[in-house]
Amino acid sequence: MTAPDSSAPLGVFDSGVGGLTVVRALRELLPDESIIYLGDTARVPYGSKSPDTIRRFSVEDTQFLVGHGVKAVIVACNTATAHALPLLQSTFRVPVIGVLEPGVEATLSDPNCERVGIIGTAGTIRSSAYQYALAMRKPGLQIHAIPTPLLVPFVEEGWTDHPALESVLHEYLTPLLDKGVDTLVLGCTHYPLLVPLLKKMLGDQLRLVDSASTCAAHVKTLLEAQNLLRLPGEKPTLDIYLTDLAEQAEALAKRFLGSTFNKVKKATL
Questions:
Q1: I need a surface site. Which of 4, 54, 99, 124 has the fewest CB within 10 A?
Q2: pLDDT tens digits, residue range 225-237?
């Protein structure tokens, strides 16, 4: 078995285009790395699927990226991370990193963290993966998790500063604020785009932990530890593959990535 090549690209997958917030964070923190992104837009969302189906889809997504010669795979989907990460790590020879563990580590990095609120898709919250991981590491921690299914459509519509979104967030967050949470975990890769509005609404009331920036930091640490950082030289590339090229796919991808990119390609799994 050969070791991964440091010049090889990173592979990132998500059920849709939300994982491009992780790609965005990776490009900011690791500007020399090439990246291949796979969005399984033909089968989005994963949150409404059974755990067995999520695991099967995740294996197929990882196989696609490994087939393109990536040196590591980042599971930029909280639902897939919650249900499939151990299987992927035991099945594939390349390092496989999920978004959940870095978020948990970042949450607990503040010793004054006592009451944590978690928002995410129904599938992520139902899996209890964040709740379990936090409770195992810090017994006695108060954890309050709620599904927030209306947020993804707002983000994908581009309504990230719309008054209606502020009203929805107020409804979702009020029970958590009433519980006195001091930290809010944004357990969905769509949610980093909500950070400006959340900061405007909450001020310094809560510490925000988003899964994109924390995951990127974790990836950097892993690449450094395994001597897999790509050396500066040739211009890094970004290839975006989607399993369904819907009409709005490229516009949506640009919104999440915050920059331009080469033409999106069709992926067949």
A1: 4
A2: 999 999 888 889 9
CA 237, chain centre distance (Å): 20
Please indicate, yes or no, whether residues 173 and 262 belong to a single structural domain of this protein. Answer: no
pLDDT band of 99, cuts 50, 70, 90: very high
Which residues form the catalytic set?
Answer: 77, 188
260 CB-side CA count, 13 A: 1
Cβ atoms of 227 and 130 closer than 8 Å: no
224 CB-contact burial (10 Å; exposed 0-12 / middle 13-18 / buried 19+) = exposed
pLDDT, position 180: 95
Q: How confident is the model at residue 66 (pLDDT cuts 50, 70, 90)?
A: very high
Which CATH number goes with the domain that contains 152?
3.40.50.1860
* Helical ranges in the chain per DSSP H: 20-29, 51-67, 78-91, 100-108, 122-127, 129-137, 151-157, 163-178, 195-202, 211-225, 249-257
Which amino acid, 82? Answer: A
Statement to judge: residues 80 and 205 lie in one domain: no
The reply to whether 3 falls in a domain is no
pTM of the model: 0.90
Edge-to-edge strands, sheet with 183-187: 142-147, 115-120, 183-187, 207-210
Location of structure tokens 């992520």: 124
List the structure tokens of 125.
């919250």
Residue among 12, 2, 16, 1 at smallest CA distance from 190: 16
Tokens of residue 151, six digits: 């947020």
- 192, 211, 230 - which closes a domain: 211
